[in-house]
Each structure stands twice: as structure tokens, then as C-alpha cells.
Amino acid sequence: MDEQLLYSKNVNENPCHMCMPMGGILPFKGIEGAMVIIHGSQGCSTYMRRHIAEHFNEPVDVGSSSLNEKGTIYGGEANLKQGLDNILRVYNPKLIGVLTSCLAETIGEDVERITLDYRKEKGLEDFPVVAVSTPGYGGTQNEGYLLAVKRIIMELARPTEPHNKLNIIIPNISPADIREIKRILALLDIEYTLCPDISYSLDRPLVRPFTKISTGGTKLADIAKMPGAVATIELGVTASTEESPGHYLSEQFGVPCYQVPIPIGVQNTDRFLQALTAITKRDIPDSLLMERGRLLDCMVDSHKYNFNGRSVIFGEPELVYSLAVTCVENGIFPVVAATGGSDRLTQLLAPIFEQYKQEIAILSKADFATIRAKSVELGANIAIGSSDGRYLTEREGISLVRIGFPIHDRVGGQRLLSVGYTGSAMFLDRVTNTLLGNKYGSYRRSMYEKYYQTGNTPQSIGGAV
Amino acid sequence: MEAALDIKERNPFIATKGKQKVSLRCDADSISGCVSQRACVYCGARVVLNPVTDAAHLVHGPIGCSSYTWDIRGSLSSGDDLYRNSFSTELQEHDVIFGGEPKLSRAIDEIVAKYQPKLFFVYSTCIVGVIGDDLEAVCKRSAQKHGITIIPVQSSGFIGNKSAGYRAACDALLRLITPEQPLPRKANSVNYLGDFNLAGEAWIIRNYLTEIGVSVNSVFTGDSNFDSLREATAGSLNIMQCAGSMTYLATKMQDEFQIPYLRVSFLGMEDTADSLRKIADYFGDPAMLARAEMLIARETEATSPIIAAYRGHFNGKKAAVYVGGGFKAISLIKQFREIGIEVVLIGTQTGRPDEYDTINDLVNDGTVILDDANPAELERFMTQQGADLLVGGVKERPLAYKLGIAFIDHNHDRKHPLSGYIGAVNFAKEVYSTLCSPVWNYIYDWGGENRG
Ligand code: SF4
């Protein structure tokens, strides 16, 4: 296949990313009592609700200003205000997030001003409305996510007396992952504010009565106090300084910011714990060191099997980064590391791979046509990423280990645990077992074909399949 | 009349069946901030056209629209699979400012070079409508350049709701099927409109029709392709399953090509039998009618005991239905009746006045009927009406489950056919699998308040 077609910039063939407002919704679902409305046409919010609901298996209510032709021509201000009225009435939220879609941005709606006016008109000056400009064409869901987190903090954070808590900025990881991070913090006896926190709100126990807005999420009062924290740990290394919520807190309020990767794998988890202990001067409890030992044991148990792995990793840059590091430390060579978005990933990963003789394709702004072609070319035999990678299995027979967002063709995306020493071992087992499954599924046939048939194509291999 | 939550503008869209006939408001724009379940014009067009298997589906717009609709519906193909890709021009800020036409024509060139498709559908999205790219002109130029058929689909998101998207899709299909010279009619042949072959339904129905002596000329659009659709105007009758998406096309084909149409439904035993008779009746051939009766008798005999066995488990159960189109809602009322379940709440996203009239005639007194409902209303009325089961789309599933109610997906997320006799059995089985699951027995309060 000729290179030019492969890396075309005019066609995206099977997207590996989503649009900005999609990412913008998620943080709001992790804020106590928050509700979101998208200013734009009806379809955008319906698609995104479907996608998010499928992944988490939770009701995901997102309003829309339902812009029609008239609103598009004459401006959608009245629509948005009516939408805010109705959201307040039906949901009685503590905070409203207003995101824009492509349409609202293209016709030049100034949501910041509209929501300010609205609050003034209604005498709701103190009611928090967080307007986030998220044109679908302005970036991927990853940028939308980061921007929403930052805007929430900008809106709520107030200069505060110093206190003991630690801020932890949470990227788009599973509710189970967030619960694991909380467990680690509890083991170290650290007080914290996680922002955002979907660990309860998007993985609700079945409790009655049903509430329209889920309980759980970061408390507004805690976000207000983030500027008084000891430090911020941002679980993420791929955001630019401008995008980084932790950097914002350090610039504005002098809260020191430590950026560490999502703690998947031994090095990445070590880095997280190093940051925690450096800031709080706490000792790591024995029980956690034991978990670390178990992870090492798991790595040793699996290393030979893993050595057969040639992985293709794709998805949000932050996750791809951590997974690539984890693959490397386990001898599963990543032959393709791809994201639909930013090229910061390439800058970060390239130095890590310099020492290896093997070729690795680090792709940014990639689509699945490119990922597929590169995976075949470089002989990938295991894929790690979201459900959209199922096409690699379907078309190329590359088994997929699901992780990240969205997982919409299997249940339990919200329950997948992959962070910390314990979660990393569970993740690694999923990968190793997939490799073993492939091996057991095919070795009888391949040995037979290789050694018994001595080069002839078998007519029938009887019970050997 | 039921009061809609706290939004009085919603009141005209909600009614309770009673002695006095009430007219329900429908076919209107969604009210802002109501968390409508509706999709957009583009989505409506895409779901109708996506099953055309050898077409390149190119979304002219930003990435999200293409991302969320990749391989939408999962409809099945017996041949080509180009349709399972989602192509996008992935417009950027720069294109929004300076226009996206050059990028679109380059995108078409690239896809042609890589896949040589015979047919393109090029969809316009919200911003394309606003920035004013001339889709028509670009498609025409590219079509001439490559000597293939490239059809623009005018589906800007804000020009209406999903129904407008259906119309846009039908307009695109009309352009595709209009022949240069009128085609000779094929005797005893039908076009099957409004089946998207989600799980082989179009194949099941074709088998029935073949058995009674009717040939299926083309299907709109399940497992269809360029060649089969180009032959469409040779069909002697159109039969239409999904009225929401296809009524416009059926009337146009009647006016322009003098092909009459019949409304059919293959959901449930009763509707399936009625539809087969209706088709045989239309052709006025006694032998065909006899074959239809034979098929009906044979299948009914095989199916009835299975349905009856399931029915025995459903005593006193009540269902809520919230689906896309009105005609499907009507079929579901009858199908639930077949398995002994009463529908106590029924609504649609895009139902039309005549469909709501029929619904009103069919349901029992006290049934809540609503147009363009939202989660808050569904929650309120399902609870109030004591529904045990909800039929809806993926977004509604978690709501039902959180309320401890059984759920059936009647849209995208299923991998078994719901049409014909096999579909009737599958439906009853699915109802059984959710309504009679042991899990519901374990949802009780334990260890204090508010526990599961
Ligand atoms: S890309 Fe733009 S128009 Fe498409 S879904 Fe996203 S916000 Fe909506």
C-alpha cells in the first residue's frame, strides 16, 4: 500500500477519537449534584449519552438546547436560557455545566456571556454555572475532558487558608480504578480531594430510591478549597501546561504540582507512590509493599509468555502512554502506539523507545485504517484499547484486551481495575491470558502444519482444530 | 390529562387514554433542556442509508458525528462490506473558516483510489450547513471526474429532527433509483421497504415471500447494494415495514413510478399472518393465497405452543414502550397482547398524528401516551403505572434497570431477529429472559435503609 494513502490528511477512515463535548461531559458527571447541557442541535447530546450509557451501564442525562433552524439563524440565546430553566426545574442541580457543540461555536454563541446574563436575570448570581467552549472540531474528547476539569476548578476554586489535603486530578479512568486510588490513599492515611470523581456516580450501587442525579462526585466545597492544598498530583503527563488543571492551580495559587503517569505497571505506580510519600512524608505501609511484591511475582510468572506479545496500543494519549511503559517493562513489545489526538504522545514515547532496535510506530492523529495497516506491517499479535479495536480482531485476527473508553460491546467497562500494584497485576493477567489463549488455540494446528505436513497444505486436519 | 413534571410546555405532548378522545401534540421540535431521546437529521439519514453495503459512507463534517455512527445498526450483508467503515473529512477550525469543499473533493479522490466504490453517500452535518459548502456541486464534479455515482445527503443536524433525516435519506435513494429509461415491470415482485436487516430479518421475510411465489426485487436498505437499488423501479409493489423512515419514499415511488404500496408488519404472529395475506390478496392469485395460508398454518402450529408456554409466565405483567417510530409502537401493542402483557405506557420519538390515533384506539383506558418523552417522564410514569418491563433504546436501559424493571432493546443493540414467526418466538423468549430472571428476587432491602 502506498504511504501517501496510508497517511492521508483528507480522510479519516474509522475514527480513533471522539469530539470535544463528549469528553467535556464526563468530568461534570464526577461533580456532586452537577447536570450538563450542550448548547447545539439535539443529535450531539443524544449520541454522546448513548455512548457513555453503553460504557458505564448507567443513566446519563445530558440536556440539549435543541437548536433548530431559527436558533441557528437568529442566535440560540433564548433556547439556551429556556434549557437552563428546564434543567433547574426538573433536576434541581447544584451546578450546571454548559458545553458548546460545533453548531453553537460556528454561529458564534458566547456561552460565557449568555450564562452570566442568565444568572443576573434570575437572581442566581451565586449559582455555579460552568461554561466550557468545546467545539467538536476544536480537539478530541481528551482536550474536552481536560478543559472541563480546568474550567470547573477555575469557576469554583477560591483563595483559602492552607490545609492538609492533597489535590488529585483524575484522568478518564474507570470508576473501579478511582476506587483503587482512594484505597491506596486511605492506606497511607492521606486526606485528599479527587477531581473529578465518577467512582460512585457512574458506577452506582442499586439503591433506592432512584435519584435523577446520582449521589457521589467531588463536593463543590472541596473544589473551592483546592487552592489551599499541600500539593496537586495530576495523574497525567501528556497535557500541555495550558491544558493542565494542576498547572493552573500552581500558577494561580502556588500549589505545587506533580505530574505522574496513570499508575499502571510497576514503574508508573512507583512514581505515584513516590510523589505521595515525597509530599506527605508518610511511609508506605507493609501491606502495599506486599502488593508490590505480588505484582513483581506476577510479572515473573508471566514474563516468558509475554515475550511473545507484540502489542498495538491505542486510545487516549494518557492511557496509551502508561500502557506502553507497562508493556515495555513486561517484555510485550509495543509495535504500534496510537492516539487519535495530540502529538505530545510521540514526544514523550520516542525517547523511551530509542534504546530498542525494533521498529515502533508512534502515531498521533491516527485513524483505525492507519492503525490497522501499521499493525499488520509490524506483526502485532495483541491489541490493547477500547472496543473500537474490535475491528482489528474481526479483520486481522488480532485479539483485543479491552481497557479505556468506550467499551460498548462488552459489559463491565466501569468495573475494569487496572491501576495500582493490584490492578496492574489484574491487567497483566488479562493480557497474558489472551496471549496464552491465542497460543493454545493455534499451536496444534501450527505444529501439525509446520512439521507433519512438511510444506504441503493439509486437506483435512481432523480433530486437530 | 397527566401533568408533565414541572415543565408545562410538555403538557400537550402527554395524554391518558380515557372516554374522551384527546389529541396529542407531536411532530414538533424538542423543548430545550428536556433531555429528549431524539437524535438528529444526520443520524436519521445515516441509519437509513448505512445498510447499503457497497457504498462509501462519507461524513462531511467534524469527527464526532462520524465516530458515533461508525457501523451503526450492525446490519448484516451477504456480500460487500465497505459500508461498515466510517469515512469523515474531519473538518478542522481552518476548514470551518475557509470552507471545506476542497478537502471534500480530495477525500473523495482518496477513497476512490483506495476502494474504487461504485457509490458514495456524502452526508452534510450541522456546520456544513452553516458554512455553506456546496455539497451538490462538489459531488457532481467528483462524480464526473471518476465516472461513478456520488449522492449528496442534505442532513444538516439543525434543520429538523430524525424524521427530516429520513426524508433526506429517501431523497438520496430516489436519486439513486430513478432510471434513465423506465424499467420493465417484473411480475409478482415486491420491493421491501424499511427493513435494515439488523439480524437477518430481511432474509427471513424474503424466504416467506419466495415460498408463496413473490420475488423480492430490492430491499430498502437491508443488505442492498448499488445494482439491486438501481433495479428498484422494476418492482410491481412496494411493501413497507418501517413507516417512519419509508412513507415518504413509498409515496414518491407511487407518484413518480406508479408503484403502489402496502403497509405491512412482520412483528408478531398476528401481524405477520395479516401481512402475508394482504400481499397475496394484492396479487389476486388464488394459488398464491393458498400457499400463504399453508405457510401461516404451518408456522402458527409450530409457534403457538412455544408462545403459549411463555405466556403462562407473564400473568398480570405490564409493559412500557418507548420506541422511535409510531408504527413499531402499534405493532408492539399487538405483540404484547399475543403474549398476554398489557401496555400501560406508550410513546415514540417521531410518531405522527394518525399513528397516535391508532395507538389511542388500541390501548386500554388509563394508558399513558406520550410524544418525545425524556428520562424524568419515563421514570415518573413507569413508576406510577407499575410497569414491569420497558421496551426502548440503549440510553433507556440503565434507567429501567436502576428502577428494578426488566428491559428489551428494540433498536440497535440486539443480535437476534425479531421479525416473522422466528422473531415472535425470539421476542417472547427475550421478554421471558428479562422479566422472569431470578435476579429480581434478590433486590430487597438488607441491612438498613436504601440498600439494594
Ligand atoms: S462533532 Fe460536532 S456536530 Fe458532531 S457530534 Fe460532535 S459536537 Fe456534535
Automatic annotation (TrEMBL), chain B:
Gene3D superfamilies: Nitrogenase MoFe cofactor biosynthesis protein NifE, C-terminal (3.40.50.12380), Nitrogenase molybdenum iron protein domain (3.40.50.1980)
Keywords: Nitrogen fixation
Spans through the membrane: none
Keyword rRNA-binding: no
Pathway(s) where this gene product acts: Cofactor biosynthesis; Fe-Mo cofactor biosynthesis
Domain Nitrogenase/oxidoreductase component, residue spans: 40-435
GO molecular function, one term: nitrogenase activity
InterPro entries named in the record: Nase/OxRdtase_comp1 (IPR000510), Nase_comp1_CS (IPR000318), NifE (IPR005973), NifE-like (IPR049939)
BP-aspect Gene Ontology terms: protein-containing complex assembly
Keyword Transport: no
Record NCBIfam families: nifE
Protein family according to the UniProt entry: Belongs to the NifD/NifK/NifE/NifN family.
Function: This protein may play a role in the biosynthesis of the prosthetic group of nitrogenase (FeMo cofactor).
Name under which the protein is recorded: Nitrogenase iron-molybdenum cofactor biosynthesis protein NifE
Organism: Anaerosporomusa subterranea
